[in-house]
Amino acid sequence: MLERIFRKKPAAVAPPPRPRLGLALGGGFARGLAHIGVLKVLEEEKIPVDYVAGTSVGAAIGAIYCSGVSAKELEELAAILRFSHIARYTLSRLGLCSNDRLAGLLTKTLKVRTFEELKIPLAVSATDFTTGESVVFTSGQLIDPVRASCAYPGVFLPVNVNGRLMVDGLLAHPVPATPLKAMGADKVIAVYFNSHWVGATGPKHFMDVIGQCFSIAQARMCELWQVNADLVLEPDVQAYAYDAFQRAPELIRAGETAARAALPQIHAWFAGKAPEIQPAQSLGVISPAASPAA
Length: 294
Fold this sequence. Notes:
Cytosolic phospholipase A2 catalytic domain; 35% helix
């Protein structure tokens, strides 16, 4: 009798808290539509994304997604998106195009207007043109920081944000993995487009020269952000031109392929299993084998 009274039930073991997941979406112009494929797979697998950080096209897609637009809705938007929807040619010494049309697209597409209203916390990376300082926006109005992050130097005019002249975030954070750690992410998935602007045939015009120079610079900067990425997805977009918006379905499939290849590692994080590789080698690069035809 006394034994039954004083016998203690074993204490329930609380499940380990799930890791807070951050998604870093790099720049890549039209190739960045592959981000939508990554988001589709995460949604289908019910993998929660707690934080998003974006540079350039990654900032635009990230902002729309974090405002409450689903990956499926993004896919539908991408199917009709063209260069003329985000840019217009202009006569200026500071750039070939203005991305003010992007503001109109964002106004129609975003479900909120400020960072504070977003359903998922977002960081947008831009670069102060005057000082070269990295600027990461996490509060205030959304549209102008996203436009600034997309202002590719030489192609788009710089954007004035709160009295500061801003250009593309790729100059500071080609893939913004570092801001996600500061936001509180335990695990960071980075999406990177390691593709040169110009093929073996060489440049055809000055935009090719500018683009290739920045591609080379971004490749040299990989080590700076990869230290804060637990997994790197590298969709195979090598065969696509920088402005191949009309090939959105193929680009999105490339993102899906890369994300599906990484699912065992991602699911292991959420299952509380030991990682397949040691922390010192925690960078996983997923490169799909299939390469689309040009």
